[in-house]
Please model this.
Amino acid sequence: MIISFVNQKGGVGKTTSAINIAASLKRRNYKIGFIDADPQGSATHWHSVEDNNAFEVLHHPEPISKSEIDELSQNYDYLVIDAPPAFGDITKSILAVTDLSIIPLSPSPLDIWSCKGTLEMVDEAREENPDLDVKLLINRKIPGTRVGREARDSLAVFDMDILGSELCQRVAYIDAMTSGVSVMQYAPSSKAADEVESLCDEITLPQAQSEPQIQEEHQYTQSQDVEDEKPEPDLYTQPQDVEDEKPEPDLYTQPQDVEDEDSESHLQMQPHDIDDEKPIW
Model:
């Protein structure tokens, strides 16, 4: 199954969502491939932070052909694609080969207004890929606010499927990305980790019903990897310590802090690209 995270607007949490969903799928013992199609290479940069073998990240900042996807699909149960934050040939090619496209949106007027252009691009893609399934994801919701409570009603104007799971704006997501790990590794007992696991349950349910598999859920293939990367006890053994920190306005009210990490974009989808970067888990 090919899952893409698409939005023409940057800073909506697209890369963070894609990485954490890929990590959650890996925890369920699925074979995961991750394509970083964003020329900024944010996911590739994240992948290089720690010595972690969660999943492969292929930096491919150019249009993806169906033949390439067909070849890659033979090696994985799920391919997760992080699309660039813009209209263009790369995004169009991704939508043409995607089974499920997830559009992350924060419940802000600017994100909601910009979504119209993304949905127009989806309509065009369905002419070539009529089986394309598209769902909206409420992301970076601020708990306990009127805007957060009204987010679902605000998105109803698009007459599109909205995922029941929601990802809130939490410090754990920021710190996990900075540390080069998933939020499940960084703060396994946190609300952020629960949100990602719930979203992954929702995404995989239709697939599991059509293709039943015998597997253990929510377990790392190498359990010692989790143990070796536990945060310092005095900082993180109490999950609420992560949750109760209010993000400083200048750090977290600007979504681009997470997404706009620069990295080299000259990598191609060649096996040696992966060998040059140590994987992380």
